[in-house]
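Regression report. Comparing outputs from two consecutive submissions.

Submission 1:
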Amino acid sequence: MKKFILLTILLLEINIYAQDKRIPTDTTIVTSYSAIINGKKITYKAQTGTQPVFDENGTVKASLFYTYYYRTDVPKSEERPIVMSFNGGPGSASVWMHIAYTGPKTLQIDDEGNPIQPYGIKDNPYSILDVADIVFINPVNTGYSRPVVAKDEKVDKKYFFGVNADAKYLAGWLNTFITRNNKWKAPKYIIGESYGGTRVMQLAYELQSNQWMYLNGVIMVSPADYKLLRTDSSEDYAINFPYYTAAAWYHKQLSSGLQQKDLLEILPEAEDFAINKLLPALAKGGYIEDTEKNEIATKMAYYSGVKKEVILQHNLELPKAYFWKELLRDTQGKTIGRLDSRYLGLDRRETGDSPDYSPELVSWLHSFTPAINYYTQNILHFKTDVKYNMFGPVHPWDFSNDNSRENLRKAMAQNPYLHLLVQSGYYDGATTYSAAKYTMGKIDPSGKLKSRMNFKGYRSGHMMYLRKEDLQKANQDLREFILKTAKNVGPAKY
């Protein structure tokens, strides 16, 4: 329940211009609430507004829109854990996890994540706000965040739009935020979804090495690893293959022997085949013997629900886009979703190599867009005529010198307190659960950090939290991760 509203506006009186002058550069709006979370009543405040991005000379480069939730009924609030939350894209607003996963409000949707009317939000009884404060950050050109330039100058895109540039300016912004909100004594966590997985891998080391901010945890939700993603390499095709098994099982396209088993019984089989049979076969390319090629194609058909002759026509390299079009082509004449293959789509023609659109994404935009616009302006009271960018202009994005895996490894090696949690949905065809496991192994090739790395899988897709059962389970996994890693376990040493 909302109790009162405190409005404070702080504007920087310097010769700068936001890309859209209707957005103030430095603004704070605070509202107060109570809620039942994890079975207990709590009181909290929501602080929303904009905070500048400063360069090394103190010049304002951008203004980032954020929402910060913190409990008001606990002692020593400065020592309470804080979770710093990002989404991905790159170019996606921090809306998805904000009003559907970890925040105190969630979408008005059905139990499987489909939009229903009237649009809007409701209380989230599974939020992690009972154990940690949370700030949702929108990078430049997402949400209401915008670059700031001097008169007659252009936006310096290289300052913002790239793997390394993104982490650098966000780390500086977080330093300012932690200082302003007196959270230096708190256990600190960063969470990122999709491209946000790459972002937080990179950000962990950037915070540690250049802001001297040491974390307790990095959380990657359905992470995108661009060392593997869309490379069309043997590893890419093989590592993602178990997802085909999961999607085919969900749509009952596997043989009866597999279909009658539980999903978690058959996925280890598919993983073993992908790593130990399919990957070596793909590595041989055109030099593979016909006998082996046929044996592999037979097994691929067995574990994917796709006809053997189709797999052979693709030389064992079955693209995900083709799979989304092919799996139900002959039985239902429908496509399946890229980010969540539980969703079905209708194309103009049943023929073709890829779907016309992503049915799950349009479904999500259907429910998220009205909800975040209503919530921000009517509940949080951030009033503006500026469009809330669900996806903003951030391209071309500079993917060069992407050392995010190695940088996370270095951060964990140098900081014995730092733990990793990875969460993935089995029906996510964009950033697959098996690719997430693969990334974990590549982060730590020595295997010496394994005791501080955890994987959790869910029976849903990219946004596993849209399914009510997984919303509860995934938040509980986060809660347990935070409670475990925020404890005082003695000196930080090996």
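Submission 2:
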Amino acid sequence: MSVSQSLLVIVLLILLSAFFSVAEIALAASRRLRLRQLADDGDPRAERALRVQEAPGEYFTVVQVGQNAVAILGGIVGEGAFSPALIQFFSLWFEPSLASTLGFLLSFFLITSAFILLADLLPRRISMNEPERLIVLVLAPMHWFVVVFKPVIWFYNLATDTLFRLLGLPATRDERITSEDILAMTEAGTKAGVLAAREQQVIANVFELDSRIVASAMTQRERMAFFFRDDADAIIRARIAEEPFSTYPVCDGDIDRVIGYVDAKDLFQRALNNQPLSLMDDSLIHKVLIVPDRLSLAEVLEQFRQVHEDFAVIVNEYSRVVGVVTLNDVMSTVMGDLVSASEEEEQIVRRDEHSWLIDGVTPIEDVMRVLQLDDMPHDDEYETLGGFLMVMLRRVPRRTDSVTWGGYKFEVMDVDSYRIDQVMVTQLPETPPPSAAPSAAAAAKVQSSAAQAAKKHHS
């Protein structure tokens, strides 16, 4: 075979190997959701691609047999085409044995480089960019390869399946799409500019409904606006003017004895008609939904749907009322600052670039999002920033108590009746280099010694 014929054969082998590379990566990288869209749009090739993805054994066997066979043939043809000419070239300057070695090595390098660049790297990168478009193009010729190599495929599939059973490995890939998969896709879409950051956060909040309990979105017991059933007309009117809400729980002598709720619209209607406002009238009292404080937000939404209500009273395991929640509270959790920017601004106030003033009842998920923290210690034991401080301190915090975690200092600024009112969160400077550590330790030791000396002096 002449050099020109050998070159032509090598070019054909490179093209064939490139085809197998495209076929392999295009099938592996094709997104099932995108293929399903193409199939729903009427492309039968996309439907065939989905079926191949479900059972890709024969397909990948053909790819591997083809790539390895082409690589072996390429080495044989390339060595015979280039080695003699290269050996003759090197013989002009080196002895025959060294010239033979150099000629073989250079021939091997040229053939290997050509296959790696043109038959592997280049087609694979092209396939990664547009896998769905390419897979529908290579399916038909790959079908004929499967038919031609059927006996070889049967043998290798049998051997591979036997090895899978012996090793206890799954023979098919798991096609289930998890919430983590969807969140990863939305994050990638945000980085690519397809989704806005706020839109991505809304999607993430939807998946948090199953993990966030209702206590993280409720109005706390101390901030509830409610009526006693025997409240006078003047008290009811004053409460409505001072705390205008759409719904008010009605209690019988004690906040923990909720007998129902009253709709503000009914009260307004009576007020406009110059009728007295009295909650002793049973027609004003509606049956209230009572939910446990350990329910998730998703479960609360389902209960709202079942009873056709948008208001619920939350009780703990001791039947004490701990708060109330509305449908708007739950949806505000989902929509984030798209609908509740003013509320979040009240709970989390940024003082400067490195510090925040945060309400103690702020849900810990909101704190983590603002501070960009991935996790918190013992996060299954509390729902609010105040709860975090109690768990970390193992006691009721006092003013000036502080906790350091994740590069932030959480300092209690105000406590009202054992309830943490305000917390100052300060981002700590980066850890100094090791060379500065001894001086810092020495400074701390000096301060400690000075404090002890001062204590002895005063005593």
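Expected: both submissions complete independently.
Actual: both completed, but the second showed a warning that disappeared on reload.
Relevant detail on submission 2: The two ends are 105 Å apart (CA to CA).
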